[in-house]
Amino acid sequence: MATVGILTSGGDCPGLNAVIRGAVLKGETVYGQRFVGFLDGWRGLIEGEVMPLDRSSVRGLSHEGGTILGTSRVGPYTDPHGGAENIAKVLDTLQVDAVIAIGGEGTASAAKRLYADGINIVGVPKTIDNDLDATDYTFGFDTAVEIATEAIDRLRTTGNSHKRCMVLEVMGRHAGWIALYSGIAGGAHAILIPEQPESLDQICAWVTSVKDRGRSPMVVVAEGFRLPDMDSAHSTKGLDGFNRPRLGGVAEVLAPLLEERTGIETRATVLGHIQRGGSPTGFDRVLATRLGMAVTDLVAEKGWGHMVALRGTDIVRVGFDEALANHKTVPVDQYQEIRVIFG
């Protein structure tokens, strides 16, 4: 009877608990697998800190946000006590036969390296940015879009009351999927994404056109958006756990520029971590549960070095190499399709 360790790593995300629940319920029922959860991501694997996972401990989890296992930015190779040799010893001591790593690009990269170094490991993709090319959708994305759409709806009512231009900043380092989908859903008058630079003159023209029609402009901007004269995405908060610039605040740069150029009173709102929190949507609960169930099939068949993914409506398997080959960014034609109605 195989014992499987589950960990959640990187940023938290609505649907993580539903993955854990799906894996434990199917793994126990169909394959007789036993489960433990490593606490706080890779740290728990490195230090051998676990909690038991069984049917009773995952009861009712699908609607809960966050992760009962905790998460962290600790890497399995960056920690001084990490490395495949030490991790193999920890797994042997705990009598854990395989690891399910739930996370985004950084987690998949670490899992790929551990697999190459002999660790029995499989993965489940997670990112609210929806920027992993190997899967059509990642759980958490739909929830983030719903939260951002509600924020747009709320900002439009206060913007209309004061006849202001409202600028909402959402997450999206390299990919503008959240901005695009929530902007379309909320009827934004301009959507600014990392993949498609727009000049300040163009943004001002859109905003002015809206104002001239007697409306209050609504602009949605992804955190990774850059104006043509910006060398890099706006960052004033140092580096994150993966040594990447911690983004945030481009809306607060953009708003005064728009006000100065157009004369329209403008306010900025940075949505931030609100997009990560709370209960997942029904779509994300279903997707996360299906992925959790499917990853137990991978473990049962010893499909090490692979992760599960969504293609169309089917759950498929892809190797870590394929999963990490490309970022999934917004195609030019998909952006241009909606750009024609800006302003």
From TrEMBL:
It holds the Pfam family PFK. It comes from the Bacteria. ATP binds at residues 11, 73-74, 104-107. GO terms for molecular function: 6-phosphofructokinase activity; AMP binding; ATP binding; diphosphate-fructose-6-phosphate 1-phosphotransferase activity; fructose-6-phosphate binding; identical protein binding; metal ion binding; monosaccharide binding. The record marks 106 as: Important for substrate specificity. The active site is at residue 129. This is ATP-dependent 6-phosphofructokinase. It is an enzyme of class 2 (transferase). Mg(2+) binds at residue 105. Its cofactor is Mg(2+). Substrate binds at residues 127-129, 164, 171-173, 223, 267, 273-276. Belongs to the phosphofructokinase type A (PFKA) family. Mixed-substrate PFK group III subfamily. Catalyzes the phosphorylation of D-fructose 6-phosphate to fructose 1,6-bisphosphate by ATP, the first committing step of glycolysis. It catalyses: beta-D-fructose 6-phosphate + ATP = beta-D-fructose 1,6-bisphosphate + ADP + H(+). Its EC number is 2.7.1.11. Pathway: Carbohydrate degradation; glycolysis; D-glyceraldehyde 3-phosphate and glycerone phosphate from D-glucose: step 3/4. GO terms for biological process: canonical glycolysis; fructose 1,6-bisphosphate metabolic process; fructose 6-phosphate metabolic process. It is found in: Cytoplasm. Homodimer or homotetramer. Residues 4-298 form the Phosphofructokinase domain. HAMAP family: Phosphofructokinase_III (MF_01976). InterPro entries: ATP_PFK, ATP_PFK_prok-type, Phosphofructokinase_CS, Phosphofructokinase_dom, Phosphofructokinase_III, PKF_sf.
